[in-house]
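Recap from last week: sequence in, structure out.
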Amino acid sequence: MTIVLQPKPLTRERFAAYGDVIESVVDRTAAMNAARFERFDDLCSIDMKDDGRVAVSIARCRIATRLPYRFDMVERHPLGSQAFVPLTPCLMVIVVAPAEESVEAADLRAFVTNGRQGINYHRGTWHMPLIAFDAGQEFLIIDRAADMPNCDQHSLDTTVMLPENL
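Predicted structure tokens:
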């Protein structure tokens, strides 16, 4: 059996249970540098548990993902939030499930960005690993760094598919 997920457009309201949408929003602006720039502050909540510290990294896609895409594994980061922001405009497909102890394929929800949005998963949110549709696409990553591992993986009993047409 395979579950087909049809992604919905990503909005702050739809994604609130799973994390934050990182985008320039009019209700969070401030002037900076003698008002030559408009700054968008406090767009996500970075959450680090225990002795973790904030790490800023960049990931570059080596192998592009093609649709339809099948997967049967999700992961979560129980000790810290994890943010991905594309460094150039691109569509992102995000698949998530609530931050519970266990997860089933039926719990998954899919979202597609507008090409300019990033996301920040709440600590413990189950999610599909990052995919990109173009080799070379880069993402800024903000997550937890520490000596303790911070990634749990879970194999799903059911295969999940993202369809060819988003």
